[in-house]
Design goal:
There is one protein chain. The chain has 314 residues and is an alpha/beta fold. It has 2 domains: 3-198, Rossmann fold (3-Layer(aba) Sandwich), CATH 3.40.50.10130; 207-305, DNA polymerase, domain 1. 49% of the residues lie in helices and 12% in strands. The chain contains 12 helices and 8 strands. Strands 2-1-3-4-5-6 form a 6-stranded mixed beta sheet, with helices on both faces. Helix 1 (14-26) packs parallel to helix 7 (178-198) and helix 8 crosses helix 9. The longest helix is centred in the middle third of the chain and has 21 residues, at 115-135. It starts with a strand and ends in a 9-residue tail after the last helix. The relative contact order is 0.11.
């Protein structure tokens, strides 16, 4: 089972940890909060029984997370240095550069949590201050909005993000809440799980020629026809090797699929039958199963039954 390692600095509060644990449990992976070699990072460790190539793909991914309070200080440092002033704090660009040096050739993604809330709080405080100046009455109770620390604008943040992208090639992404961070870790984990399966999808656009420029080999006894049928299916939109294997297992030849399509009383029945075919993702980090689905079943039915040579299968 895949394990998600989360540095404690990513989720210092119990509530934040619970959200991430729940998000990981939703997709059936283990989550462990342990100090990482690079602080504020999330990394993935695959199960021991997967192929070495898939292991390498999974371990190449790493996510860095920073909360708004720290990001504001770094962005403020960038503004000070841009204005020719000295700063005791590293800039966002310096931090990302240090991350890239620490993680080496890994694929780094960076997320900042809660920056929109920071700007919203400052906007509310500015309105409150203006209201006090107009009415001459100070705000009281829970409505009083007192903010500490450096002040930056959304424009300052965008400038700092652009600088980071220009000098490091890293794009800063934002999430608004702890809940969104947990969901982002969940989505990133799912992407990591699927990445080995999708890695070679576009390596060879003409996959039907992968055994040589002369095409796939078929001998006089007909050996190789099944492979030709599989690669023919893979020319359809979004049909990968795993889905083609599932279809070929159920219908080893085009004629058998054609007969099945014609034997049913309606196209809807056939499409439903095709949509329920089980697809096993062999190259995934976690063995997963899915169905062919309605859209692919519709394309497949049209492909095998259409008598219009000009028809475009969308």
């Amino acid at each position: 089972m895949l394990t998600v390692f989360v540095d404690p600095a990513v989720a210092p509060l119990d509530k934040q940890k619970d959200l991430i644990l729940k998000a990981c449990a939703d997709i059936g992976v283990i989550c462990d909060f342990v100090p990482q070699r690079v602080e504020r990072t999330v990394s993935w460790y695959p199960p021991l029984d997967i192929q070495p190539s898939a292991r390498e793909v999974v371990q190449k991914e790493i996510m860095a997370v920073m909360h708004a309070e720290e990001a504001v200080c770094m962005i403020n440092s960038y503004i000070q240095m841009r204005q020719g002033q000295a700063s005791n704090h590293m800039s966002l660009r310096d931090w990302v550069s240090s991350l890239q040096s620490a993680v080496g050739d890994k694929n780094l993604s960076v997320f900042i949590v809660g920056l929109h809330k920071y700007f919203s709080s400052h906007k509310t405080a500015a309105k409150q201050k203006h209201r006090e100046a107009v009415t001459g009455k100070p705000a009281r109770g829970k409505n009083k909005n007192v903010l500490t620390g450096p002040h930056i604008t959304a424009g300052d943040a965008e400038e700092a993000f652009v600088e980071v992208q220009l000098f490091t090639g890293c794009i800063i992404q934002q999430v608004d809440t702890d809940e969104e961070l947990a969901q982002q870790i969940k989505l990133s984990t799912k992407a990591v799980i699927e990445k080995p399966n999708k890695k070679d999808r576009f390596d060879n656009i003409f996959s039907f020629l992968e055994e040589g420029t002369s095409g796939l080999t078929v001998n006089k006894q007909g050996q190789g026809l099944r492979n030709v049928w599989k690669h023919q299916l893979m020319q359809l939109k979004n049909v990968g090797a795993d889905m083609a294997d599932a279809i070929v297992s159920a219908y080893p030849s085009p004629s058998l699929l054609f007969q099945a399509c014609k034997s049913d009383s309606s196209s809807r029945e056939t499409e439903k039958l095709l949509s329920e075919l089980n697809v096993r993702r062999h190259a995934s980090v976690i063995a997963t199963n899915r169905k062919v689905g309605k859209e692919q079943a519709r394309r497949l039915y049209t492909f095998i039954t259409s008598t219009d040579p000009e028809e475009i299968i969308k």
